[in-house]
Specification:
Shape: globular
Helix content: 25-40%
CATH class: Alpha Beta
Order of helices and strands: HHHEHEEHEEEHEE
Number of helices: 6
CATH architecture: 3-Layer(aba) Sandwich
Oligomer: single chain
Number of strands: 8
Length: about 210
């Protein structure tokens, strides 16, 4: 892709991100809750979720309006699956999937905005998914998706880099599922070869 084409793609993505952030911010709280509940019910019945043992899921934090994942986390622990959550290294593309052990563990992390702070020594003592067996299922966040699985992320490239790393992992690439509000489903999304496609998109109206 030429320099001009790359710049045009970045501009198109930036404009779309601005539009989507406004659209998502305008979803009433009650509607966010309603749609999150439907999505939770759908993924709990999903065959890939039912069969997975090692699953990564994003945290529901205040910085971004997302489909809430607490209900899914509850079932992950009830079903005795191993649960991993993202830990980002700011100002880089590095992201680790680190193990959490309970809802109490999760609550402490969310209260501390753990997802968006640099990893400290204590954090890095947690089990890392890639070094201890990989992942069966990766539940990813994003700003928008097509029904076919094209994804518009937040622009930092964390998940794109992580999936790329998984392609070289002896444990293989995990199956990917995106959780979305209806308002996040688009007919098309500008993308290039570096943008991974999710295997499945779950939203209330699908």
């Amino acid at each position: 892709m030429s320099g001009a084409a790359t710049a045009a793609l970045r501009a198109a993505k930036a404009a779309l991100r601005t539009e989507l952030k406004k659209r998502i911010a305008n979803i009433p709280h009650e509607e966010q809750y309603r749609q999150s509940k439907i999505v939770t019910e759908k993924i709990l019945e999903n065959s890939r979720f039912k069969s997975c043992h090692r699953v990564s899921i994003y945290l529901s934090i205040q910085e971004e309006i997302r489909v809430q994942t607490v209900g899914i986390l509850e079932h992950i622990f009830k079903l005795d699956k191993e649960c991993f959550v993202p830990k980002f290294t700011p100002n880089s593309h590095d992201m680790a999937m680190l193990k959490i052990h309970s809802l109490e563990d999760y609550a402490k992390l969310v209260a501390d905005n753990w997802e968006v702070k640099p990893p400290n020594e204590e954090d890095m003592k947690r089990e890392d998914a890639q070094s201890t067996g990989g992942l069966d299922l990766l539940i990813v966040p994003g700003l928008a998706y097509t029904k076919r699985g094209h994804r518009l992320g937040g622009g930092k490239g964390y998940y794109d880099a992580y999936i790329q790393n998984c392609s070289h992992d002896p444990h293989g690439r995990p199956y990917t599922i995106a959780l979305a509000f209806n308002e996040q489903i688009l007919h098309s999304i500008p993308c290039d070869v570096h943008d991974f496609m999710v295997d499945e998109v779950i939203y209330p109206d699908n």
